[in-house]
Amino acid sequence: MKIESKDTDIESFLDGNYFYIPRFQRPYSWDEENIGDFWTDVIADTSDDYFIGSMVLYKKTKQQFGVVDGQQRLTTITIVLCVIRDYFLTLDCADLAKGIQQLVERKDRDNKRKYVLKTETSFPYFQEHIQKYDEDPDVEVNIREEEKKLERAHSLFKDYIGSALSAIDTDASIAEDERNNLKVGKLKSLRDSVLNLNLISITLDNEDDAYIIFETLNTRGKDLSLTDLAKNHFAKHLKAKGDVDQTKLKWNNLLETIHNSSSDISSDNFIYHFWASRYESVPLKKLFPKFKKMVTRTKAKEYLNSLVSDSKLYRSIHETSFGWVKNEVEAARSLSALQLFKLSQPTPATLSLVRAYKNNKIKFAKLRDTLKAIEKFHFFFTAITSSRSSGGISSMYSSFAKKLFEAKSSQEASDEIQELVNKLRSRIPSFEEFQVAFSEVYFTNSHSKQKNLVRYILRGFSEHFSYKTPDDFDDLTIEHLHPQSKTDEEGWSEELVGSLGNLIFIDQKMNGKLDVKSFCNKRKVLLDSGYTLPKSVSLATKWEPEDVIAHTKIMAETAYNNIWKI
């Protein structure tokens, strides 16, 4: 690997060379804080030549270079120069504006005008709206996230420089006929601050070496994600053929699938769970070396295709309105419950299960029943008892996911699933532990943290006993048999009023009818209206704290031994 290194400044760096930001690079991502720091530390308050670090390049031709490291700084510097250029034009200093434009756009050896910095990801916005000299854009551009970042950076530098020039206009000590010259001088000073910035230019002979350097430089970087490293690795092994870059298209398709989800999922976590569901569970920060070793040039296309297909499955297990049809609703409901319980541990297993179903390795009934078993286990283990695992649960799921992925037949897959279900069954907390935790679940208007869990539990009981209600469960409200307004009466603590034994589902209209009626009146109205009530409620002639406690215990027994039993 041949590497050339030299000290230079921005003006010399830009003069005579053309730079290209290759496809494996991240989009422009500087935010207001980055830009504000750059303006304050590097341009506005700098009198001496300022060192901005290294720029790593690789040769494309004698004068053309791909940018490996330094893209964000180089793009930002180009934006600043374009803003200064435009302000020169407003002051009728066309020669000074054209002097800057020579570092933004100039003719090459074929006498064709060419931008000094070219990028694929923000084309044509960057060229048409920022780099272009004194002309309206010829192309309408859809503003995406990167374009918004570029637009914001451009706007901020316009504000910074505009404020510096306005200060001259508002300075009463400056004669009016001197102001224009001072503003031109201020722009020249800002221009010189930018062009005098010092850097180290590191140049490599070929693109393959550039990928290696990119990875080496950024693996230790604080802001480079697993997604960035994986993208770079695929781009290294899967070069574009012809005008259509299939690798880029597939990668963008993967990212769009993940980023467009209404659920809070990330591409880094997707790749982590993808790996754990197929190969082995590795900490996120240590995953890329494993990834790099296994994703060889001959296997890169296969791995990329697998990532693309699994991204849709990953989204479907987190966003259950995506990818599921009507007759698959039971599987989607179990996945929704796992989201309600705020779980990530089972994700490798659920991803592997859904993949096995989509690939016809298992039938829907097997998928449905296994997801239900996982849901029931975590109702006991996580939602109610808040049990803690030393890591065994995560290892269990990852091991199962890998074995299911490797299963060669439906029978082998079924055997692995049965083993998982047996392990889940063996880890369920004791009834005594469950009963205590179940009695501590409560919901009131002032304590709504567990509201969704309470709705989940009440729905489970309503469906198990086929309680009659006039509306769908999603439209029902939670009713307190002993009203919340009478909390703090003798024996009625908020925890008891909000406990599961004091709660039922009713519809909105009935909620208004019951209002703060006594228990006996509430029971009569509900029964007369066709509601089905638990026996402990429908047969009660009074409703005292001890009745709620007794009913809660009965509910705990039914939940443990019947409704959520695996």
In short:
With 566 residues, the chain is an alpha/beta fold. The protein has helices at 10-14, 32-44, 71-90, 94-101, 125-131, 145-169, 176-195, 207-219, 226-237, 246-259, 267-278, 287-294, 300-318, 329-340, 347-358, 364-384, 392-406, 410-426, 431-439, 451-464, 494-497, 508-514, 519-528, 535-538, 545-563; strands at residues 3-9, 18-21, 51-59, 64-69, 105-107, 113-115, 117-119, 198-204, 477-480, 503-506. The model has no long low-confidence stretch (mean pLDDT 89).
Describe, in plain words, how this protein is organized in 3D.
It is built from 25 helices and 10 strands. It is an alpha/beta fold and 566 residues long. It folds into 3 domains: 3-209, no CATH class; 231-430, no CATH class; 433-563, no CATH class. Helix 17 runs antiparallel to helix 18. It is elongated and about 95 Å long. The chain starts with a strand and ends with a helix.
